[in-house]
Write a structure and sequence with these properties.
The protein is mainly α and 382 residues long. The protein is 75% helix and 0% strand. It has three domains: 58 residues, no CATH class; 70 residues, no CATH class; 190 residues, MFS general substrate transporter like domains (Growth Hormone, Chain: A, Up-down Bundle), CATH 1.20.1250. It is built from 17 helices and no strands. The longest helix is centred in the middle third of the chain and has 30 residues. Keywords: Membrane, Transmembrane, Transmembrane helix.
Length: 382
């Protein structure tokens, strides 16, 4: 047992970012009386269980989203689909704050010995059980429209054939890789500075609430800055956050930077989704958006997690944050410099234009300014 702890002394502080997590990990290991071989087997079993669980739940979000969209389309209420996004950040805010507050209250009552993080898994299981009960009444259309199996391949070929989508995909990939550095190590960094779990949950909720408060200005922001400018602003804010995190001096100092999540996460993804919808061919907008948000961003998070772990082990957490900041700033400069040189191809989304025509019931205004086809052709020429 002692040999395992001696070898772990050189690794754990690098992983955790400071002495607080080292002492906690050593205390947990002593309490469980695990040898080095036992620690390895525990890690492998935990990793295998986590991978198996992620494989089971990976399609859950996309299936639920598609089912909800098809149900609203079935009842002719797709206009309500865009207003349902607010429940995601609200649920995330309530979940992280509620679970951490509940764990803080029940820790003294339920925990006698063993890792204190077990209560978080109990809370996760409780929320999952409640979600299972609610899913029974989830609206799923009876005659579900069967999606063509080639839509994902078609969306992938569309990305490969459009320079703007290639640049956008690289941007999303790098954002996912940089975001993984925050998701993987920021809480440990806060714990090293004496932060409680409730403050960690509040920091996540603060970013989600900032996105909700900024949403009423979404249209104005995209119109004034353009989509390219909004993506650039999001990259700059994310780089500023990472640089700020590398110089944290107290547990509360992370809270002001979390407000920038409204731009570095919210506004950036608004611009990405709007660009994808404009560049997608008819029938591929949803598949292309799901690919950007799931495969490309998720791939960036996966690679960023692996590379970030090696950087933290070899150097330090501050070096990881500063390196991510430099990479994002370099890509921001390249992104803004190549945008004017890309072919400006804007496809006309006729389904949107038909909806606009159907909703326009006023015939009082004269002239070609009310002709949606003329408007579309003018926008395409410009």
């Amino acid at each position: 047992g002692e040999g395992a702890f001696n070898s772990g002394r050189t690794v754990l502080p690098l992983l955790a970012g400071g002495p607080a997590n080292l002492s906690a990990a050593q205390g947990n290991a002593r309490g469980l009386d695990l040898s080095l071989e036992g620690l390895h087997w525990t890690f492998l079993l935990s990793l295998g269980s986590l991978v198996f669980w992620e494989l089971l739940t990976a399609p859950l979000e996309q299936v639920a989203d598609d089912s909800l969209y098809e149900y609203l389309d079935f009842v002719d209420a797709t206009d309500r689909y865009r207003s349902l996004w607010i429940w995601r950040p609200l649920g995330m805010s309530a979940g992280v704050c509620g679970v951490t507050a509940l764990v803080g209250q029940l820790e003294c009552v339920l925990m006698t010995n063993g890792p204190r993080g077990v209560l978080h898994f109990y809370g996760y299981s409780l929320v999952g059980t409640l979600a299972l009960v609610v899913s029974v009444s989830f609206p799923v259309p009876i005659c579900r429209r069967r999606e063509p199996s080639y839509k994902t391949i078609k969306a992938l070929s569309l990305v490969g054939g459009a320079p703007q989508l290639i640049v956008l995909a690289l941007t999303v990939f790098l954002v996912g890789a940089a975001t993984s550095a925050v998701q993987n190590f920021l809480f440990w960094h806060m714990e090293d500075h004496g932060s409680s779990e409730l403050v960690m949950g509040f920091s996540v909720a603060l970013g989600s609430l900032g996105e909700i408060l900024l949403h009423p200005f979404k249209t104005t922001l995209l119109r004034k800055l353009s989509r390219v400018g909004t993506v650039g602003l999001g990259l700059g804010c994310l780089a500023a956050q990472l640089l700020y995190y590398s110089f944290l001096w107290s547990w509360w100092s992370v809270l002001p930077a979390q407000i920038l999540n409204a731009i570095s996460s919210g506004a950036l993804w608004w611009a990405v989704k709007a660009s994808v919808e404009d560049l997608a061919t008819p029938g591929t907008a949803r598949s292309l958006g799901a690919m950007f948000q799931g495969h490309i961003s998720g791939g960036g998070c996966s690679l960023g997690s692996v590379v970030g772990g090696f950087v933290v082990m070899s150097f330090s957490l501050a070096v990881l944050y500063q390196a991510c900041c430099v990479v994002l700033l370099l890509w921001l400069a390249l992104f803004l410099s190549i945008q004017p040189r890309l072919p400006q191809e804007q496809k006309i989304n006729y389904s949107k234009l038909l909806v606009m025509e159907a909703s326009d019931t006023s015939d009082s205004e004269q002239g070609t300014e009310r002709d949606w086809l003329v408007k579309a052709m003018r926008e395409e020429d410009s």
